[in-house]
Amino acid sequence: MKGSRGRGAGDNPANRYHAHAKQAFDDGWHQEPPVPLRTQVAIDSTRKAITYNQSPDIPFDRSINPYRGCEHGCIYCYARPTHAWLDLSPGLDFESRLFARPALPGLLKAELAAPNYRAAPVALGAITDAYQPIERDWLISRQVLEILAEMHHPTVIVTKSALVERDIDLLQDMAREQLVEVAVSLTTLQRPLARALEPRAAAPQRRLQTVTRLSEAGVPVRAMIAPVVPVLTEPEIETLLQAAADAGAVTADYVLMRLPLEVSPLFRDWLEAHYPDSAAHVMNHVQALRGGRDNDSTFGRRLVGSGVYADMIRQRFHLARRKAGLDGAIELRSDLFRAPRADGQLTLF
Questions:
Q1: How many domains does the chain divide into?
Q2: What pTM, to 2 d.p., does this model score?
Q3: Domain-embedded: residue 321
């Protein structure tokens, strides 16, 4: 695993559709350090704003994703394999060759104006983070949120970025009408581990500060202890929940680390590079959660695992959540939605 400063993956392995793959080889000669990667952003000419799903594992059936790929570079990201559909690598390409969707706000207005549209909570940034660093320049998530706020549409934001604080003005107004919740992902409080796992995401303590600032503005925050990585972050479940409660979160959930398709070899390479002494221990525990495999994509098991070890984690989590006072619920309203007319204007009634 060669690595590139500030990146999660160490290389650009071939995706699952490639007929051939390259493999690094050390011939004993001096190797030049890798050249730092610059993030490239291209336009993704999407034709739809809202993506629908029928998954029984998640509490929303629709999402909006302003970007493809994610500059945060989290090595465990379950979305990495989606870059294979673009004939790119789920490795470094996923975190450095990004795609923005500037047409999304216009498409969203048209879809919300459809006569048969019925409002229900929509997730902003369900696949990749809507507040990743390139959002500072592109402002697509901000424009989308402005439309959702204007139309009183219930919204769930999932992020590990402090940039979401920029939009507190919109979130505060939406929260007054029970139209929004922000789920802040908390993985670990260990800064060195966080830097290696999530190289361009906000630092752990900065995320807790974001929880506090949102909470103080009246925006309900869900602490997402996600992903739980066996051996590396799993011992912190109780500490993370208490820290989230102290910061002002009102409820919490968790998701076990998933290693679908190309993510599994990427994560294994990362382990050997960063935690070689723990690599076998980590993967043994991963497989204990996944029926002896690196991954189990079965509905009902893919987020929480199965077996004795998974049951132990679930019991620990629920006990710690109750002890921290985070076992409440956030209810969003869908009855306030006001659809725009076809010309983009809101209806009077």
A1: 1
A2: 0.91
A3: no
